[in-house]
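# step 3/5: fold
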Amino acid sequence: MTTRRFECTEGGASKFWEFEVDGSKLVVRFGKLGTAGQSNVKPFADAAAAQAAAEALVREKTKKGYVEVGGASRKGRPVAPAAATTRGSGDGAAAQALIAALTANYPRYVAALSPAASLKALEKAIAVPVSLRTLWAWRDGGDSLFCQSEPEGMDWLPVDAACDALEELREEVEGFSPSLLPVATDGAGNFLCADVAAGALVDWDHETRKTKVVAKQVDEFLERLTKRVLAGKFLSGKEVPSGKVDRRVAQATKLIEADARANAAEVLELADRASPESGVAILRALRAALTEKDWSKRDAPAADLHAELARLETLTGEFASALTSAAVNAKLGNVWGDSRLQFLAQRALKAKAYDVALEAYEVMQRYYPGPEAAVGVAVALAKQGRPAKDAIAQARRTIEQELKRPVRDVPNPLVRAQYRLSGECGKLGQAAVCRAILATLESDADKASAVLAEARKEVDALLAAAPVKEIGVAFKNISRRAVDDVSLPSLRKDDTFGPLLGAVGL
């Protein structure tokens, strides 16, 4: 039994931390240098689990500035690399089976997932189970993937989000186990975590700060999920291949023929669960059976008809029809108005349908004026080889107006401080990327780089002057987003500006 000792003297600190693994027990001692300190003993299922927990703690302590003393002469084994097999992680077969099932049965879902990202940063922080490494090596997160019983599941975290969640939980939640790796979230502060020491998958509740075992092994959960996928019980049911008749069309037709107005909500739900092609057919039939008053008001039975039709027509590549639907939706003042136009414009840019992108941005400019719409108009004009000088000038005026717009005010002083910092950083970031795009349109790549570099300095100055203690844990999230807003690698992944950057070659 060998003791490993770590000391921290950074920033005036004078602390030590040491541990030893005694069979299935982890013995930890810590305190001020020169004192005996305190000790703590934690039992585990076996020696392997105790060792895994110890190694996780070592990674946590070294990140905080602790340095191992006498490490080179110690006989104790060094920290195992994060890629080492963790308890209950399997050989990746369960993950491969899930990947195969999703690819075969939900191709549209798979096609929409982001490509794999590097695991290096995450593996430096914690040992990633083999099955989860296999999943992340395939795709980088996915909506509603980790469903337990209901079709609506928790969102599988992208690697960067998992890193952020892990860091935040370890720093801000007292007693958060160093062996827990967040892998999915419900978006409300609760996480599904892999316990790399015990091998289990647990549900961590942000209110009680307690965990509940969901599956004794990660692979066991993945095998259950695979069965749901194969049975068509994933998301809203089985995907219908393009070109095939969807039974939901027949169901919707009967409902429309019986009473289109009374059954509008149910028909809309069927369209949402159908394939995009079938959904378009269902909604067009519903629109034909209704009068204008049935969808032209916010409280009308089919108020969301054009919003959903615009989305599905965009997915099927019927851009001209989608533009008509999205424009009607925007005119009605629907809450989804700007997002549907934005979605259409982004898809049209990627498909090089610049005429549709231009019209979509022009409709956005009319109903939802702002820098994105103004810059989008300029980009679409330039991509068509049309004069864009006036549009670029208008975009610059819009950017300046947006920078002058006051940040939303709220009564609560704490929330107000958060809103102000987030809002000011957000405006700087948005202005910077818009200016960089406009500079690129004018063939001034050096200016584009300079604009982003200057914005980064301004953001750094805002963050440095921020009342960190007042803002609390939100400061880390705000600062991370602020830096992302002026970083080209992050912006390229952004739904809003990514397509615009791609169109101008940034």
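# step 4/5: annotate
Residues 71-88 have pLDDT under 50 and may be disordered.
# step 5/5: archive (pending)
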